[in-house]
What we know:
Blueprint: E1 4-10, E2 13-19, H1 29-44, E3 50-55, H2 76-96, E4 101-105, E5 108-110, H3 112-118, E6 122-126, E7 130-132, H4 144-154, H5 156-164, E8 168-170, H6 171-176, E9 182-184, H7 189-201, H8 205-216, H9 236-247
Parallel strand pairs: 2-3, 3-4, 4-6, 5-7, 6-9
Antiparallel strand pairs: 1-2, 7-8
Helix pairs in contact: 1-2, 4-5
Amino acid sequence: MAGMIDWQQKGPLATITLSNPARMNAMTRVMWRQLREVFLELSKRTDLRCVLVQGAGDHFCAGGDISEYPAFRFDPTSLMHFHEVEVWGGLQAMLDCPLPILALVRGNCMGAGLEIASCCDLRLGAASSVYGAPIARLGFPMAPREATLVQAAVGAATASAMLLAAESFDAAHMLHCSFLAWSAPDEIVQAKADALLARMLLLSPQAARLNKQVLSQARPAQGPTPASAYAYAASPEHHEGVQAFLDKRRPDF
């Protein structure tokens, strides 16, 4: 399989790994559906206390798997289904999970990876990690509910720079804007994550679940997205941006 969501349990800790190493763990459609299934299952478990989300190898997640895009992105109906059912289904399952979720971010955390990290309660980034959502280069916007989620996590100024200027930011910036709770040198970031998880696993699981309920009340409301939000599907700029990426050339907008 080109990409998969792997999960393993060690005692009260579940470790979720985004795995598509050939594409820096870019999310395929299958992976989005698996993400939903995994977190729906985790939400039922009473023997777990904490969840770690990470990427396989040197990266967290470089975004969506653009090689799949020509098959569905240029039709408004299939594009809407992708974002509102497949992508949002996975993200909503993460948001609804009653367990504390820690993201361990190495390497690229872009687009879809940024959205997945935004669903986590706590984020630890390696010093060399990089964050952004440069999809304006691909000729399309971030879906409305996904943009609201990211803006709430990274802050309005950083979200605007990412989406309007295709800007990417380092861990120091993301720590400053409170997206990251911690950052650590690459060589000790795993040890830092292990220490954090060990401490979290000693805390009251009841308190953790109740605190998550309280904190979730401050989350921006996410209403249904109108079909008009995906009317750009067949637009020339959308076609050009995706095709230029696949052709490894600069898009001509």
